[in-house]
Amino acid sequence: MKYPALGALVLAIALPFSTLGQTNKSGTAKKNAANKPATTDTPGQPQISSQSILIVPNWLPPVNPIQPAATLLHDLVDTKLDVRFDWAKQWLLGVATVTVRPHFYPQTQLVLDAKGFEVKSVKLVSGGKEKNLNYQYDKKRLAITLDKAYARTEPYQVRIQYTAKPNDLAAGGSAAISSDKGLYFINPLGAEKNKPKQIWTQGETEASSCWFPTIDRPNQRMTQEISLTVEQQFKTLSNGLLVASKKNNDGTRTDTWKQTIPHAPYLAMMAVGDYAVVSDTWRGKAVDYYVEPQYAAHAKAIFGRTPEMLEFFSKKLGVDFPWEKYAQVVVRDYVSGAMENTTATVHGDFVQKTRRQLIDGNDEEVIAHELFHQWFGDYVTTESWSNLPLNESFADYSEYLWTEHKYGKEAADMLGHRQMNLYLEESQSKREPLIRYRYADKEDMFDRHSYEKGGRVLHMLRNYIGDDAFFAALNKYLTSNKLSAVEVAELRMAFEDVTGEDLMWFFDQWFMQRGHPTLNVSHSYADGKVTLHVVQKQDTTYQPVYRLPVTVTTWVNNQPTDHKLTVTKARQSFQLPVNQRPSLVHFDSDKILLAELTEEKSQEELLYQYYHARNFLSKKQAIEELRPKVGDLAVSGMMRHALADPFWGVRATAAEALRRYRGPEGGAIRKELERIATNDKDSRVRATGIGALASFQNEDFGALYTRSLKDSSYAVLGAAISALAKSPTVSAQSSIEALRNDKNPVVVSALSNYFSLNGTLDHYQWYLAQMEDADAATLYQMLQDLGSFMLRIPAVERDKAVRKMEIMARTNPRYEVRLGAYKGLSTLASNMPALRTTLADIRSKEKDERLIGIYNLLQ
């Protein structure tokens, strides 16, 4: 599962996160230490006396109940489904034949998860005959009384005829998975002219039981066969291979998909829609891309690196892609980012892009993430949601591995740093162990801990034991546990078996305990030695004192020397031998540690670090820490140098650091920013350059912005519109107006901001039209802009938009859209006091706990 960034964005906007201090991801850890330093230690675990006042941090969660793995009474063996659909009622009409066997003890009852069904009949199937069975059903679980006690050596079959009614279920969901009704009918009556008719499913966490009866737990595995009867114009997709397709006399067609390798029930899927299927292959296996017909010509540009990813991951892991085929399908109104259903990944429609949109980058990270799950999550599956990082941390880290392989270490480190900061942002209000046996709801596991923190932890582990051992251990983990459910101990033992080292210390502090180190590092030089002082400042009442293998590099006469050391105390000093005062002492010079790091360095040391950096993150650290001194000639010279760096990320970082520059090289700096905004080969740098120029108040770059409206990149186009929103020009007006029919989300978002500041009544209809077509992420911000825009038009003209916004705030299925509409109405309430009563009523009737919490903060 790759959940969308919008959920985190909404929370980041709504919740009072404190500003992070200087944070740097740093340090490599290898066991063989060259130049091993001497150490002097200060015992560091603080003692709490009986008279101490215990201050509970805001990020400490309440004590939640223990959530064990599900007890195995029965083992699923096979599920056969025969389904058809009532589009008008949004029902699935199904017959399920479930084969099970008792796990160990004899069983006289079978309990299946079955949410929101109308159960027509339940029968035992034996020897080609059917026998009615008694059952009890409470709309959640189907308890079937068997005809006798079955032993573990006796598999049996139960056939259930049912109707699934997903819209009758109570609304549920989370920030990661916004709805949990399992089965979704998109535009079922065809009433939305710009949206295709589709049916698709979303099983994780336990929503497969909303469309077929099963034992809906991750520690179950089954083979399956699904027959879907659909209208002739529709394509179908499910797990495994298409083994039959039969035209029926009533104008329908029945497709049968069969998967012979067992997987967990939450990974079952189906999709129905008017798709173009673009075919590819990998080692003779089918690799298919299901896209809306208008994107058929772009499908290989979007997904075409999938075969290369399959080859890369297969070789890296030493385990070939294990399934029968691999398909990817794009669906509308998806409730998450993407989902790794076995052999058939579902993507939200954000991945569908034209070749022009792909100039600014595609979604390879998401594509790699879901593909890696086919090994980590599908082939080897977490036995409980408490162990979810065994799925998601690896999928998160696959993004780094693919980026490193395809685009180089600088690009991978840039991605890893961004992921680390996402976790650190969340850690301001929440800190949990990666492996959590206590949680309030299984959906709570889908957070920046299980994903981004877990990925950074794996990166540290890889660097500690080395690449050969890391990938050998992953191979052992996969081969030893294939087609089974696991917990974190199996992962640890695989690494210990390969390395020969007891790694309990690493797994305990990083997987089983909460938090991360907060480090203060300083150094001094005397008598041919550097004394390095490291202080762990994190609250050790609730977090450990960490054992941190790390690399410290000293630079003398432009020659680096790496010192491998291990921090083990809350306060610790190390002496590093040098033959003269070093130009730079660089803690965690490989930038591996997951930590908040404050490192005392002079301006001269940071300048030296930039010019001698061996990785992107060291340059980034120097640029960002020197930003307050950008008026100094040496620093501004460094920034100009960075604007010509070969790696686009360094150029973009420098451009961002030069926002609002006020210094002696003002003219030269502006010329450099104009150069990259106009001519840089990377569209992301051009867009950042435009944003930097827009920060200079009372300076006219309107001609550049107007020229940029013709750029091939949507990112640059959006940045130019945003710049012109603050400084509109007459010459750009016709070009802006010419973009009103562009449906690209970047353009729509930028125009929404532009019109909110500069629009007239003539643009009112534009907003009303966009409300019908925009995606959830775009609507979230656009509805807030609309609230500001309506302050610019006469009150008598506002009614239509206010009514639409109120309906959206009350009924839109996406919680972020409801929030955007609510915030837009709140802005308008400053001018229309009567809306305060409406807003109070919306708050009182909202049932989503996420929104209730945000509304309470916004009042």
Q: Could you please describe the fold and organization of this structure?
A:
With 859 residues, the chain is of the alpha+beta class. Among the domains are: 379-512, Neutral Protease, domain 2 (Orthogonal Bundle); 630-738, Leucine-rich Repeat Variant (Alpha Horseshoe). Helices cover 36% and strands 23% of the residues. The protein has 26 helices and 30 strands. Strands 6-5-9-3-2-12-15-14 form an 8-stranded mixed β-sheet, with no helix packed on it. Strands 1-28-25-24-30 form a 5-stranded mixed β-sheet, with no helix packed on it. It starts with a helix and ends with a helix. Residues 6-50 have low confidence and may be disordered.
Coarse morphology: globular
Number of H/I helices: 26
Relative helix content: 25-40%
> Terminal Cα separation, in Å?
34 Å
Q: How many extended strands?
A: 30
**Structural class estimated from helices and strands:** alpha+beta
CATH architecture of the domain at 379-512: Orthogonal Bundle
Mean pLDDT: 93
Q: What secondary-structure arrangement, pairings included, does this model have?
A:
Elements: H1 5-14, E1 38-42, E2 74-86, E3 91-102, E4 107-113, E5 117-126, E6 129-132, E7 135-137, E8 141-150, E9 156-164, E10 183-186, E11 198-201, E12 222-231, E13 235-238, E14 241-247, E15 252-263, E16 270-273, E17 276-282, E18 285-291, H2 299-303, H3 306-317, E19 326-331, E20 338-339, E21 344-348, H4 364-373, E22 380-382, H5 389-407, H6 409-427, H7 449-465, H8 467-480, E23 484-486, H9 488-499, H10 504-512, E24 518-526, E25 529-536, E26 548-556, E27 559-567, E28 571-577, E29 584-587, E30 596-599, H11 603-612, H12 616-626, H13 633-642, H14 648-657, H15 666-679, H16 683-694, H17 702-708, H18 714-726, H19 730-737, H20 745-758, H21 764-773, H22 776-790, H23 799-811, H24 815-829, H25 835-845, H26 849-858
Helix pairs in contact: 3-4, 4-5, 5-6, 5-7, 6-7, 7-8, 8-9, 11-12, 12-14, 14-16, 15-16, 16-18, 17-18, 18-20, 20-22, 21-22, 22-24, 23-24, 24-25
